Amino acid sequence: MKDNFPPNPEYMELHNRRYEVRAFRKSADCVLLRGMVRDDKPHGLYLEDDTEPLTIHHMIVDIEISFPSMVIQSAQVVFESHPHTECTGIVNHYQGLVGLSIARGFTHKVRELFGGPRGCTHVTALLSAMAPVAIQCAWSMRIASAREDKSINIPREQMSSRTTRESFCHEPQYMSRVVRRRRHCCNFARRRRHRAAHPCDGALERTWSQP
Length: 211
Fold this sequence. Notes:
- The chain has five helices and four strands; from the N terminus they run ββββααααα.
- It has 211 residues and is of the alpha+beta class.
- Strands 1-2-3-4 form a four-stranded antiparallel sheet, with helices on one face.
């Protein structure tokens, strides 16, 4: 897979943390969400003769989500690499994810259930990164179902990225406020220019408005 990072600067690298989240259509009503977090120390930093990066953390989370309710059906946490033997003792605690909605208040609930000593810091951070991916899958699931069922016709205008952003992104709402503000300013400036060019019109307006 292509590395989308820009080239490293001319400094000593200290740490590399990588998140990756992938989503799969398990069935017409189920999404499999798979996330990974990995912490690596560059080779030669801790052990001078080491020729490979030193992996400190490597955790994988699998979540099955019902669609369209977006409720978690099952959860599995695997610790591939961890610095302490006690780390894996928290794995079963993440069964508390089952039954949660990944769409409504998920990040807040994750912090409440798994924050601090109640969970693994790195897994909890990964879960927060996975939730938006599940939301991104909603439209993809509808498109996939429409392709299977040829009788379903989705209007082309609903397939635009603009439509999918309106429910989940601040940008359309923000842009609508900006547009309204700019239109108001432009109309106000246009009226001032017109009155400056036609002072009599303003005088007539004032005269007609008087009782």
